[in-house]
Amino acid sequence: MKKDTVCIIDDDPIYVYGTKILLNYNSNFCSNIVVYEDGQEALDNLGSMIKSEEPYPEVIFLDLNMPIMNGWEFLDEFIKLPFTIKPVVYIVSSSIAERDIEKAKSYDIVKDFISKPLSFALLEDLFQNS
After folding, report:
1. Could you tell me the CA-to-CA distances from 62 to 13, 43, 52 in Å, in that order?
2. How far apart are CA 30 and CA 123, in angstroms?
3. Model confidence over 67-126: pLDDT tens digits?
4. Which residues are modified to 4-aspartylphosphate (predicted)?
5. Separation of alpha carbons 35 and 62, rounded Å
6. Measured between alpha carbons, how far is 15 from 128 in angstroms, rounded to an integer?
C-alpha cells in the first residue's frame, strides 16, 4: 500500500541515499520522503507537525546510533506526542544485539526491528503489510 510520506532518521548519507532510491523506485512506496540526520532534529520537526495538526509521515525508518539524540532517546520523547494516528516505526540498524531487538519490542509504536541494509523485496513486504 502506497504511503504519502515516509521519514528516514539516520546520519549515514550512503544508507539514506540507497533507501531513497529504493523508496522512489517506480514511486511504488511513497510520494514524499523526509530525512533527518539525528533524533533531535526529527523530534523538533515532527513534533511541530503533529502539534500544529499538519500531515506527518505515516512510516518512519529509525536508526539507533546517531549523534545528538540516538534512536532510543528519540522514541522515548516521540511516544509522548499527541498523535491522532500513530505512525509505523521500523528500527533499521546495523546492530544485531539481542538486547536491542528485545528493547524495540517494548515500544508499542515500533512495528519491527530490521537489520541494515533494506532491500526492495523487504520494502515490498513491509508496505503490503502496513
Report:
1. 14, 12, 23
2. 11
3. 999 999 999 999 999 988 999 999 999 888 899 999 999 999 999 999 988 888 888 888
4. 63
5. 10
6. 22
> Between the CA of residue 22 and those of 26, 27, 30, 117, 126, what are the distances in Å?
9, 9, 10, 11, 13
Q: Which three cell numbers stand for residue 59?
A: 512510516
Residue 1 binned pLDDT confidence (cut-offs 50, 70, 90): low
Question: How far is it, in rounded angstroms, from Cα 47 to Cα 37?
Answer: 16
Nearest to 118 by CA among 21, 6, 11: 21
| Yes or no: domain 3-97+106-118 corresponds to CATH 3.40.50.2300 | yes
Tens digits of residue pLDDT in 31-63: 899 999 999 999 999 999 998 989 999 999 999
Contacts of 55 (CB under 8 A, 6+ apart): 4, 5, 49
